Amino acid sequence: MERDFELLSQLVVEKVKSRAQDLKEQEHFKVPSISRLGKHWKDYKSMSKESLILNEEKPKSTNDCQRQKSRRNNSDCVVLEPLPQNVPDLPPIETETAETSLDAIMQHIDDSVNRSILGVFNRVGREQSRESKKLNKTVICPALDISIEGISSHPHFRAQKKPSLKPQLAELPKLELPKKTHKTPKKAQKIEKLKICPKEVIWNKWIKVIQSSNAIDFQNKTTTFKYYIGKGNNSPLVNHIMKSRWWWSRIENPSQANLIWTQLKHRSTIESLPGFTGVIEEQLVQETPSKFVQSEVEGTLLIKSSPSYAKLKPIQNMSEVVKIHNRLPNNSSLCSKKKLFINLKAFYESLNQDIFRVVPTTFHIDSLNSQSWNDFNSAYTPNSTWIIKPGENTNRGNGIRVSNSLQEINEIVSLAGSKERTYIIQKYIDKPLLINKRKFDIRCYALVTSINGYLQAYFYEEGYLRTASKEFSLKSNDKFIHLTNDAVQNKCEEYGKFESGNKLSYSDFQKYLTANYPEINFYDNILPQIKKFVFDSVKAVKGILNDQKKMHAFEVFGYDFMIDRDFKVWLIEVNTNPCLELGCSYLAKLIPAMLENAFRIAIDPLLPPPTENKKYKQWVEGINFKNEFSLGFSMLRDENVSA
């Protein structure tokens, strides 16, 4: 009889494992609790033969039927149904016949295993648990213990703490059942409230870094601000970027706007900006390292890693009505060709450096009777090529001439008869670096902000090359050879023939260098020269750009550079209101990203979005946090540089 129960136990174990796998594959199968399965199997010997095999069904009383029905309705207690009456007694213990004799039993188990086996689990488990407590000892039965999802049964867990019982342990069969994954609606709502969007963390850190570097501690009191955009070639893009800021609305009256964007400097707007009369002081605070590493990588690293970065004490007397203009009061000190040359010359002379290591040999001519004209005549050599530019505000290639004739240059300059009309005569770079035999220049962007009258300058790490449509030659004065700006090149029949929109990215230029000049790396050998000259130009005019310390203004400048065959970088000019047209697929990606990035520095920290609004989280999750502006100049840290 004992061997019968041992054989039955082994068959039941195999049947349970097989049945559990079938149940797992059914989508509607609900995971039973461990208490229903029983934490382990106990010894079947404690059970009487009659509890498993019934030769004849006993008559049931009314109370018995009600009790059995009640037990079936209880999910925690499953009753073992009786076997059919025609099940024969077990034959003598022989392995060959035992399995055959148990066919009826196993068929019954297979039909009701979802109820019967679980009932055996519970019943046997409870009985053996009571015995274990009475005897205060662990019962080991490896063949009948079962591990659910890798969790050891209770007796095995206790036996692991007793060295004497470890040799009796065996690896348990495992049941891997589906896990419960759904959450109740209330619990899900609570979890959702506790979630913090990673982009929101980055955004908050970004705003705090920019505000602290500009002495701002500002909380907006209104949910909507107003902006005005004047007519110009850049207005559609600016309007598109501002429309994405849901707390801003466009108006047609600039006097009521918080942001005034115009193509040229708006004199009345500049005059309406309040001046700052306080003192900017650095706040010496030891900042704890950020635990959110991603914010340092994508947001503030290019700002905080700069030697020019300083955390400032916030200004307490900020104006209630904040006004921002996209033009600096004296931007002509940078973008006027005449003033740029004069200011750079004074700056480098104060440092005992030669300006003509930065810009080509240049002469500012205001008349044929001036000393500078005489100096030019002395420097002129036959067949040398010079480029003549109007000294005052011009752009898009207007008024620029290329000539190697002294007589022709004399005729051009003879028009300069007053202070309103002067010329810049500059030595033409006659040995420029070429791309496939064609001339090119480099356009890059700088952002200069004056918040609270505190000047800072940033350099945008991405830019592009502008190529000529025709092969380079000094024998021709053709503009399509010498001038690379779009206003000239887009009139050429071969415009866009070699590059889309005659534009190349920095990475494309690096591929060309790698193929033709493998020893030169653009990012290591050329870009650092460009950045230095950009920040030098801002340092040269730091006391002029905003001499009245108007509270809030900023400007995006377009810088143009050339490279000669020796890979020496030359500053050509600085442009206010640079062209922001999206002439090719690369510019359609670069320019909106640059302008959006500039607004996150110059506008959003001053007038941030209201965080209590429902639209805030949706907006902050959708914006791009990749910052490409590196800080290179600040008034406080670089004030010891002579201008």
TrEMBL record:
Q: Which SUPFAM superfamilies match?
A: Glutathione synthetase ATP-binding domain-like
Question: Could you tell me which Gene3D superfamilies the record lists for this protein?
Answer: ATP-grasp fold, B domain (3.30.470.20)
Q: Where is this region: Disordered?
A: 54-75
| InterPro entries for this protein | TTL/TTLL_fam
PANTHER family with a match to the protein in the record? CHROMOSOME UNDETERMINED SCAFFOLD_125, WHOLE GENOME SHOTGUN SEQUENCE, TUBULIN TYROSINE LIGASE
Protein name (database record): Tubulin-tyrosine ligase
Q: Please give the organism.
A: Blepharisma stoltei
